[in-house]
Amino acid sequence: MPIVEAHGLTKVFRRPEKEAGLAGALKHLISRRFTDTVAVDHLDLSIEEGEAVAYVGPNGAGKSTTVKLLSGILVPTAGEVRIDDLNPQRHRIAIAHRLGVLFGQRTQLWWDLPVGESLAVLRDIYGVDAATYRKRLDRFDQVLDLGEILPVVGRRLSLGQRMRADLAAALLHGPRIVYLDEPTIGLDLVVKDRVRDFLRTIRDEGTTLMLTSHDLADIEELCQRLVIIDAGRIIFDGDFVAVKDRFARERILHVMVERPVPMEVLRTTLPEAEVAAGKTPLHFSVRFDRFTMTAGQAVNALAELENLVDIRVDEPNIEDVIRRVYSGELVLDETTP
């Protein structure tokens, strides 16, 4: 049985239409008008236990609203959500012990308390025993350097420090399902790498992850499945590697040589590749399909020129694929192999 299920999930926000000023307010009292905005539109989603799912889309697509519906923060206008076969709106306490939620732009720390005291309050709320609490804090300290920020009052934390503390708060009670909304925002490169390693570890231990992020390195390193949402609807749901293999299969070699080589010679040497001149006569690029030719085969063919100076490889990037989907250049479908 899936651990997260949504069927026909819909959320409509109603906003009043009124003119500015007192006259507009009085007019609205007499004749009320509203505008309905559909944030999530009849969404169906199923996530198995232990899956790591990337949930991506342009700004305003409905990502954060979906997460709030799945965690019970918002009540759906229509449709149903089941978390571990429970309704999150009706079984809030039971669901709270199963879920960990991190919103990159929100905090669950108390602004006027030191981080250590905020975590202690959460320990008592979730009923985490002392030994488990210490063990988890030690583990978080190894990844997030928590020790240095435990005495710091919440309102004095930098963005990166707050994100580290909030990540610890979201995972403190050992949730089975973790929703991560921009989990590495504000973190430096070293801490990002450590956080990703830690999230991979808990994923491999069976924790279910649902990740929304504009940092696609988070997605590439953590997720096996890609779900793309636009205008409140899922437009693609499929295997992450399959999408990358189908639409991000191109590689580019950037080559520098000692002496200029005629384009005709290069194209004869690499007939299955597209060769283009570079910024100087000593530079050129080789574009090829990584399933038709390997980088090693391309380099071996170029080595016959005997005047290579430098070679740099541009790897396929899922970011380009998702950017093309957003812009309408590429249409993915659920039959993508």
Written account of the structure:
The protein has helices at residues 21-30, 63-70, 92-98, 115-126, 130-144, 159-171, 189-204, 216-222, 240-247, 263-269, 295-303, 318-327, and strands at 4-16, 34-47, 52-56, 78-83, 99-103, 177-181, 208-212, 225-230, 233-239, 250-257, 274-277, 283-289, 308-314. It is α/β, with parallel strands linked by helices and 337 residues long. It folds into 2 domains: 4-245, P-loop containing nucleotide triphosphate hydrolases (Rossmann fold, 3-Layer(aba) Sandwich), CATH 3.40.50; 250-315, Alpha-L RNA-binding motif (Alpha-Beta Plaits, 2-Layer Sandwich), CATH 3.30.70. The protein has a 6-stranded mixed sheet with strand order 5-6-7-3-8-9, sandwiched between helices. Strand 11 (274-277) and strand 12 form a beta hairpin. The model has no long low-confidence stretch (mean pLDDT 85).
